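Reviewer 2 asked us to include a model.

Predict the structure of this chain.
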Amino acid sequence: GHVNIKKDNKREEKLKQESKLNRWQLTSNVTPIFLGSTSNGSPIDSTFANNSKSYNTGVGFGIGVSYAVSKKLTVRTGLNKFNMSYNTNDIVYFAGMESRSLKNINPSASGSMIQVQDDLINSPTGVTSETSFLPFEESFVQKNKGYINQEMGYLEMPVEMTYALLDKKFGIKIIGGFSTLFLQDNSVSVISDNRSTFLGEANNLNNIHFSTNFGIGLKYGFMKSFEFNVEPTFKYQLNTFSSDAGNFKPYLFGIYSGISYKF
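Predicted model (structure tokens):
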């Protein structure tokens, strides 16, 4: 008979603990955003597929709310805002009346007068583009060496679950879920010698796309209801581009850090 009484006591303890659980939590976060692609390719134009790309670090910030289903399991959502950009290197551009526009760009007024080419096409043997096989008139054109910068800004709404592996003053949890991303900023520019010229907007970026998220969370509790969180999270983008993404498969890596309040 003793064992049963013990078991009942344990169960009551557990129920007491669960009812004492502060189920709601408000969080704020700020993060560096590292963009990358799992394969080389160009969503701007297929002629740049093999050009090297360099990825710039963006910054994101957001707010969140989570609800503890149990001591170990929480569901959460929120809103994050971030911008990300990358450069397509080794290009030349010049003004031309008859410019061939880039495949996936809706050109601005100024952008429609600019011709952008892969720099390496023009000089197969290291001969400068001025003396290569270009039409006579083009050989006098001033060519600017530079890079293309594509910037994308999003409002992100994650829906995630977290599972605590360790839940003391110091805690560790696993994070999994997905995000819905709403396109906010969309611009493509050519840059050389610190001069930037707006080419236009990408026409193959979806207004809404999704990502799958996976991360690890570390927390440290201080005072009664506050926690400091650091969450390295990997977000693989599913359908950033509508049509021809040129084999460009973007992902984001963020280190979300912030403070949360339990109530």
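Residues 123-132 have pLDDT under 50 and may be disordered. The CA atoms of residues 4 and 171 lie 33 Å apart. We have added this to the supplementary material.
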